[in-house]
Specification:
By secondary structure, the chain is α/β, with parallel strands linked by helices. The protein contains twelve helices and eight strands. It has helices spanning 2-6, 8-22, 30-42, 47-64, 69-83, 115-128, 143-156, 169-182, 199-213, 234-246, 265-273, 294-302; strands at 103-108, 133-138, 160-161, 187-192, 223-229, 251-255, 277-281, 289-291. The protein has an eight-stranded mixed beta sheet with strand order 3-2-4-1-5-6-7-8, with helices on both faces. Strand 5 (223-229), helix 10 and strand 6 (251-255) form a beta-alpha-beta unit. Helix 2 (8-22) runs antiparallel to helix 3. 48% of the residues are buried. The structure holds guanosine-5'-diphosphate (GDP). Guanosine-5'-diphosphate binds next to helix 6.
Length: 303
C-alpha cells in the first residue's frame, strides 16, 4: 500500500499514457508499439532498455501472429520483470546480514540524492530488527553532512562516530570500524562524500577509505550501496556510470520516487547496470524506505 502511494505519479502517468496508446485498438500493431515506445521513454526507462522491451514485444507478436491490446499489460509486465534479472527469485532483496560481524556498508552517491536520509532509514530498519548499528560520518567535506547524520543518529538512537569538518574521511572510517568492533556492533553504515567534479579524486578517496577500513576488517566494506535520486531521471544513469567506474558498487537504492513520474528509471538502471536495486525511497520519513521487489514494483505500474 505504501509502495502504491509512493509510486502514485509514475503509475498514473504511465497508466494514462498506456490507456491512450491502446484506445480504440483491439490488437497490438506498429502504431501501438510506437506509442508504447514513447510511453516507456517518457517514463524514463531509458532508450536502450526501451528498445529491448519493444523488441521483446515485437518477437511475441511475430511468434503468436496476434496480440490483443487486452493482453499487452500482462506481456509487458512479464517482459519488464524478465529484464530486471538480477533479482530473479522475485524475493524482496534487502541487505541480508550474514554471520560477518560487524557487517560494513559503505554508502556512496552525489550530494543531495538522499544518501544521509537513506542511511537513517536503514539504521532504523536494522535497529528495529534488533541489530546493533553504528554510523560513520566520513563525508567530512560539508559541515551540513555531519550535522544531518547526527540528526538521524539522534532520531534513530544509534551511535555515530564523527570528527571535525575537513578531517580525513579515511580516518573517520577507521575510527568507525574500530569502535564498531569494540562495541560488538552488527552493522556499520559509513557515509562518504559524493563529489563528482573530479573523478580521480572520487576514486582515490573511496579507495583510501576502503583500504584504511581493511586494516581493521580485512573484507570491509562488505557492501557498497550507491544511492541515486530517481527524480533526476537520466542523470541517475550518468551517476551510476561514474560511480561504477570509480569503485565496485554492489547494490543500489533509488530515492525520491514519490513525487516523480520518472519511476521507470529503476527499470532501466536495473537492466543496464546489472546491480541489484535493493531499496527504493518513497518519502522523507523514517519508514519510507521500501525493500525492493521487482514484481511488486512492475505490478504497481499497472494497478
Ligand atoms: P544527501 O545530501 O545525499 O545526504 O541527501 P539528504 O539525505 O540530505 O536528502 C536531501 C533531501 O532529499 C532531503 O530534504 C530529504 O528529506 C529528501 N529525501 C531523501 N530521500 C527522499 C525520498 O525518498 N523521498 C522524498 N520525497 N524526499 C527524500
Amino acid at each position: 500500500e505504501n509502495l502504491d502511494k509512493g509510486l502514485e505519479k509514475t503509475k498514473s502517468s504511465f497508466f494514462d499514457k498506456m490507456s491512450k496508446a491502446v484506445a480504440g485498438k483491439s490488437k497490438v500493431d506498429d502504431e501501438v508499439l510506437d506509442d508504447l515506445e514513447d510511453v516507456l521513454i517518457s517514463s524514463d526507462v531509458g532508450v536502450a532498455t526501451t528498445i529491448k522491451i519493444i523488441n521483446r514485444i515485437e518477437e511475441r507478436v511475430a511468434r503468436d501472429k496476434y496480440l490483443g491490446t487486452d493482453e499487452l499489460n500482462k506481456i509487458l509486465r512479464e517482459e519488464i520483470a524478465a529484464l530486471m534479472s538480477e533479482s530473479e527469485s522475485g524475493e524482496a532483496a534487502n541487505i541480508q546480514l550474514p554471520d560477518v560481524k560487524p557487517y560494513v556498508i559503505m554508502v556512496v552517491g552525489v550530494n543531495g540524492v538522499g544518501k544521509t536520509t537513506t542511511i537513517g532509514k536503514l539504521a532504523h530498519q536494522f535497529k528495529s530488527a534488533g541489530k546493533k548499528v553504528v554510523l560513520g560520518a566520513a563525508d567530512t567535506f560539508r559541515a551540513a553532512a555531519i550535522d544531518q547524520l547526527q540528526i538521524w543518529a539522534d532520531r534513530t538512537d544509534v551511535p555515530i562516530i564523527k570528527q571535525k569538518m575537513g578531517s580525513d574521511p579515511a580516518s573517520v572510517a577507521f575510527d568507525t570500524v574500530q569502535s564498531a568492533v569494540k562495541m560488538d556492533a552488527d552493522v556499520v553504515l559509513i557515509d562518504t562524500a559524493g563529489r563528482l567534479h573530479n573523478k580521480v579524486n572520487l576514486m582515490n578517496e573511496l579507495t583510501k577509505v576502503k583500504r584504511v577500513m581493511q586494516k581493521v576488517i580485512p573484507n570491509a566494506p562488505h557492501e557498497v550501496l550507491l544511492v541515486l535520486d530517481g527524480s533526476t531521471g537520466q542523470n541517475a544513469f550518468e551517476q551510476a556510470k561514474q560511480f561504477t567506474a570509480a569503485t565496485e558498487v554492489t547494490s543500489l537504492a533509488v530515492t525520491k520516487l514519490d513525487g516523480t513520474a520518472k519511476g521507470g528509471v529503476v527499470i532501466g538502471i536495473s537492466d543496464q547496470f546489472k546491480i541489484p536495486v535493493k531499496y527504493i525511497g518513497v518519502g522523507e520519513g523514517v519508514e519510507d524506505l521500501q525493500v525492493f521487489n521487482k514484481y511488486e514494483f512492475v505490478d504497481s505500474f499497472f494497478k
